[in-house]
Amino acid sequence: MNEKSGWGNNVLYLLGVAAIVILIRDINVIARLPNEAQQGAIFKIIFFHVPVAFVAMTAAAVALVASVLFLITRNFRYDALAVAVTEVGLAFLAANLVTGSIWGHVIWGEWWAWDARLTSALVCWILYAAYLMLRRAVEEPTQRATFAAVWSIFSFIDVPIVIFSIKWWRTQHPQPVFWGGGSFPRDWLVIWLWNILAMMLLGAVMTVVRLRQENDQRELDSLRRTAHAM
Amino acid sequence: MHFSSVPILFAQMTTPDDIVREAARLQRNYEFLSYGLTVAWVILVIYVLMMVSRERKLKREIAHLKAMLADRQKS
Questions:
Q1: In terms of residue numbers, what domain contains A160?
Q2: CA–CA distance from A28 to each of A21, A31, A32, A96, B28 (Å)?
Q3: Which single residue of A13, A89, A139, A176 has CA 20 to 30 Å from A104?
Q4: For residue A41, which residues of chain B lie inside 8 Å, CB to CB?
Q5: pLDDT over 70 (residue A95)
Q6: ipTM strictly over 0.90?
Q7: Number of separate domains in chain A
């Protein structure tokens, strides 16, 4: 390991630890906040449900940009970024769906409602899971990257539907706190923003780690080809 | 959004039944809040563990192939 990558590793781990420290501190602070008058303690799940959604939607946007750039430049670094960020986004979207389902169970009395927001979010998860499955199914690297980039661009069509579904249709899912005319007390807002920052940081660190694995995978493929040729 | 503390909520209750019902609702809310947070973290931790396992496997395979190629070049 050279000096530069060792320094990079330290920065990466430091950022990861910083994100986790912020999140642990926030859990401690959130536990001591008063309950929301109508929903009670379960409302506090918003501190995780929304930040993980932010990360997932940002990941989808980054995957879109990386996929378009791959199709334009044919540079495999963009393909690696697209797969790394998609995988991380999928994990965060899974966390978003599960926390939302638990919240819905308490407030609506049911684990799931087939309304526009929940259904489009589930479709989004399935589309990006299909992206990863597609990559496993195609052997040839250029063909794999091209098919995957086209699929990623197609999948992104669902992202605005997920975001705006609560505005476009009447849904069981409530309107967002800010965008729907509501507000948070200042201390709640500060913790919520810190949580978004921490989750974004965590997502970024996980993406960089996953990106390095893609580079290792490419090195491994190259070594395998050399071994076969010898 | 309206925020209130538990003592204020209890102060508004009129009968002992109301208090018992509200206490049960609060208990249930906390229970499901903890389930939600636990599941969200478990999903992320499982993903990190999968990444760690993949990283180890990749490093091991690269080291193995490099050693094999070095041996072949020597012989």
A1: 3-229
A2: 11, 5, 7, 21, 20
A3: A89
A4: 26, 29-30, 33
A5: yes
A6: no
A7: 1
